[in-house]
Amino acid sequence: MDNKVMQGLLNTWDKGRTTPLVMDGIIGPLSREKIRRFQKEHGLVVDGIAGPITKYELMFYKYKDFEKSEFKCKCGGRFCNGYPAKVEESLLKQLQQIRNYFGKPVIITSGIRCRTHNHNVAGADTSQHVHGKAADIKVQGVSPDLVYSYANQINRDGCVIRYKTFNHIDRRGYRLRLDYRNR
């Protein structure tokens, strides 16, 4: 993420509470102050430097229809802090494409999973959920067949699995198509 993009995302987060940053790519006193405010509000180390953790948290403001909490492990905190992995940006980008295409909310039924929760829900040992590269989704008011068809077109180097009531999308790095409707 370059500095201009980061400044724009900080402006998106700030929602006009303070003077918008000029998106010039220069990290001066105003940018550092806004970074500090962002870090404080998100429970990060407050140092005014947009390192990898701050940039990861900012990434969610790039994909307006999704929040980090939607991807949280469903173990309920019994086995992890909810975020044993980071959501991969290419997954967010693809989910946003699906949202834009159908014009309807994408519901994440399963996002990140810790290994224990993945085992408890009979997830594959090689599950991309544990790496932050997968999501099981439904699109509100759209048949899973239509979602599968579109995901199949746009996810050229990942996996799309068709289940009876939802689809699995992942960014594993190679093409894989499966049909588990009879499971």
From TrEMBL:
What the entry lists under Gene3D superfamilies is as follows: 3.30.1380.10, PGBD-like superfamily/PGBD (1.10.101.10)
Naturally occurring in which organism (per UniProt): Alkalibacter rhizosphaerae
* UniProt xrefs under InterPro entries: Peptidase_M15A_C (IPR013230), Peptidoglycan-bd-like (IPR002477), PGBD-like_sf (IPR036365), PGBDSf (IPR036366), Zn_M74/Hedgehog-like (IPR009045)
Entry's Pfam families?
A: Peptidase_M15_3, PG_binding_1
Name the UniProt record assigns to this protein:
Peptidoglycan-binding protein
Top-level taxon in the UniProt lineage: Bacteria
What positions does the domain Peptidase M15A C-terminal occupy?
65-170
- In this chain the Peptidoglycan binding-like domain maps to 20-55
